[in-house]
Every structure is written in structure tokens, then in C-alpha cells.
Amino acid sequence: MRVFIAGVDGYLGWALAQRLAARGHRVGGADALLRRAWVAQMGSVSAVPIAPPAERLAAFTEHFGAAMPFYPLDLRDHDALGRALAAFAPDAVVHLAECPSAPYSMIDFWHAESVQSNNVTGTLSLLFAMRDHCPQAHLLKLGTMGEYGTPDVDIPEGFFEVEYRGRRDRLPFPRQAGSWYHWSKVFDSQNVAFACDLWGLRATDVMQGVVYGTWCPADPRLSSRLDYDEAFGTSVNRFCCQTVINRPITPYGNGTQRRGLLSLADSMQCLTLALENPPEPGEYRVFNQLRDVLSVRHLAELVHRAALECGLTARIEPVDNPRSEAEQHHYNPETARLRALGFTPSAPIGEELRQMIRDLLPHADRIASHADRLDPTVRWRPRRPGGQATDQHLTARPNGRNPE
Predict the structure, then answer these.
(1) InterPro entries recorded for this chain (predicted)?
(2) Who has the most CB within 10 Å: 80, 113, 126, 359?
């Protein structure tokens, strides 16, 4: 199978390219290196050093026996994207080329606009390019469980069945996003579903939970990034980075918020299963991709335990919640479809956390040098009139590309 990965330089994209190549698939990729620029704008770096793109691609060729066709483009460059898809002729397209940060989108108007433009316009460009150049290809688009919000009912996989006056229908489950970023993902889902209905495209929309974990092969050029700043570092990744530099683990609020999560290795397994079992033409399907549902406080306790088992000194110190979110809520997502395809969770979370901490310990000095970026400064509701950012890293408008 020929798989085109948009966002191949990112946390998930680079690991997925290697997993697919190891399974015998032909991989091509596109990336504008925006993730590197966004993290740099936040005043941070990847905790795990990552090689420049040229070195990564050279290592990929050495280890997997074939060069990866790479297209340094932004999906919003519609003509360039069309040429890339026509040249590669994919059987499947994986869409990971979106800004994945709720805090980044909540800084101010400029960041909200940047995130929504990148995500919504980029996805729309990709849909039209697929229609024109590879209409038979399967689109695997990464969504987020955050699209659903935290409703007081069980969360089905995208749709629910209704009956009225003897007729049954299948309606999209209501979305209740909690940030400008999450709303951009809702808009993406609606556009993808419409394209399937309108043009007969086939798509899998993956509502993914919080991903944690490292990807550190023996050749460091193949390592995937791991972010820990307040905007791009997911909770577990931040907690682990805090422990390796002897900083307190800082769950937000009372820590009773419940989230779906899975390891990076399990995310790779699920995405591969979805690709190797495509939907029918015209079908828009939704997978809720997660392994466990745990509270943020429980996650902090698990990281604390893993740190102690690795010989570190660790402590938990909750901080005020900068977000606008329910801290006490029902949360029960359905996850049947991936399991029906054969998803079997890999290592237990405690084992994954210990391995993650061991991978991060050699980079403790690197993490410590940007430790000021761990603490939350972006607040969903401004503390003072005008909503102006108070942190020096947040005052600049998004612009340019500043790779690590």
C-alpha cells in the first residue's frame, strides 16, 4: 500500500512512517515544519533531540531500504499539494498536518485565527486535492476526543441511532468543543463527512485520546519529538518531564477531569489497523481511539509511582486550572470498532511510564534549560480587561518557520 502522510515530521507522523515502512508499505510524506516553529515560538524545544529533516530522511532510507518521497509544503498551498498527490499516487492519505494545541489557540485572536486557518483551510484543500488527484484513496484524518466535550451521556463512535414516527436515522453525535482548536477539529469532521457524501470519498475520522510516550530507536536520527511546554506537551508527557528534573507534578485543578488516553505505541497500532482495513467508497466512519479512561489526578499518581520506581524523588502539587472545563463529569466513550479490528493494548501504563522516564533521563539538562515553559500562562478567561497575554513568549503573532 502507498501511504502519503501529511505532517510526517511530527510526533505521530514520524513514528507512523517507520511503523508502516517496517510492515512493507511505501511511505511518502509532506510537512511545512510548522510544529518546530510553533514550539520554538513558545520558547521551548522537544525534550528528545530531533534531527534536521535531511538527516531524518537519510536515516529512513538507510534503515528501511527505500527513500521516502518528501514534499516540503503547507497543505494550504493547494496547487503544490495537488502536484504531490498526483506524483505519489497514494492508496491512503493520513492527515496529521494540523496544529494540535488548545492552549496555543486560546492565546489571542491571532493564534486562534492561525490555528483555524491552518486546520480548517488545510483540510479543505486536502479534500479537494484528493477529489481531483486520488479520489479512490482512503483518508485517515486525526480528530480528537475533545470534539465531543464532556456530555452527561455515553459517547458513541461518532453517530447515534434515532427513531421517530417509525423511521430510523443515523445522526452525528453533538459536538461540545472547549477551545478554538477543538472547534477547528469539529469543522474538519463536518467537512470530511460532507465530502464523502458529495464525492464518494472514503474516510476514517479518528477521535483520539491523549497520547503519551517516547519513540527512541537505537539510531537517534529516527527518534520522534516529545514536547513538554504548556501548549504542545500533553499532560502525561509534561508530568514525566517534570519528574526527571525534580520539579513537582502539576495536575490542573482538583484533578478529577477524566480523559481517554493511549500510548504512542498503541496509537501506531490503531492507525495501522485503520489503514489496513479501509472503509467502502462514500463511507465516513468514526473510531474512538483510546485505551483507558482515567482522571488527571490518577495519571499524576501513576507518574509519581513510576518515578519512584526509577529511583527519582517525585511529588504532586496541583495548580489552579487555567482552562474553562468541567472538573466533575461523566465520561464513558464507546471503543468497539478498533477492538473489533484486532486492537490489543500493549504494555501496561506503568511499564510505559517507566520506559518513558528512562528515555528522558539522558535529556534532563535539555528539559531543565526550558523548565519555565512547563507552567501554565495561557488562561481561557483573561484575568484582566483586554485579554492581553502577560507572558513574553505569547505576545508575538504567529509567523515564520523557525525549525529547531
Answers:
(1) Epimerase_deHydtase, NAD(P)-bd_dom_sf
(2) 126
